[in-house]
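Lecture 7 notes: from sequence to structure.
We start with the chain below.
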Amino acid sequence: MKNAIELLLRFGYHLLFLAMEFLCFYIIINYNREQKGIFLHSANLFSTSIDARVDKVNQYLRLDMENDSLHKQNARLIKKFIDYDLNSSLHDNDTLAVDSSKYQLLAVDICNSNFRLRDNYLTLCAGENLGITPDMGVVSQNGIVGIVKKVSQNFSVVMSILHSQSNISCLIKRNNSNGMLTWEMGNPKIMHLESIPKHKTVLVGDTVITSGYSTIFPKGIQVGKVKTVVLEPGSNSYTIEVELFNDPTAWDALYVIANRLSGEQKRLEAEILQNE
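Predicted structure tokens for the same chain:
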């Protein structure tokens, strides 16, 4: 009680001044129409400004959640395109319908990446914890990225398509001519399509897609467009440059393709090889 009295004696005049100021403002605002209008208008502006700042802060805090949601949504959209290409490539016969649920796309982020070496790899910030295993394909929303080679609990190492040992089966979409997509050091956006025989017609601008002749990539994922076609004298196949739709120097959000039936297919193929 003594302390309270001392505070009042010490700051009583200040408190009285503030109380009188508040009372004066209250009387002026409530009993003068013009001043009341000005006050309400100013209060609305201030409130709007505060609300806008709060909204910006909330939007910033939600960015990670929104990015993650968009990443997963893109995975679902890409899967729909894959399913569509698989089904539309078959005849209209119910007995031939593809079980499109065999493929699942897992949204992942990149932890590390390079593209300037002869043999390039990238590291994904996901591994066994997300169900990733070796020999799964990796794609972006614009095309193929590489193949998972090694996995730990929380990380995966991917052999990039920019690797001297990368060989991916692809097709010329217009006529289903099959070849192997490889990379030679140089421009990271230019690859080569090998083993297309000279009796096939290949045109500049032809679209190149994955062939589906493996358990890694389904058929129909767009890879790039034919940039140059050359038939060397005495050669039985074309020298073809393919300009990627993907930009390997700007990979961001990626997706791992999980083929639920790959194990069954590999076991069956292994049994055939063992019996021969």
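Points to note: The CA atoms of residues 9 and 221 lie 82 Å apart. DSSP finds three helices and 13 strands in the chain.
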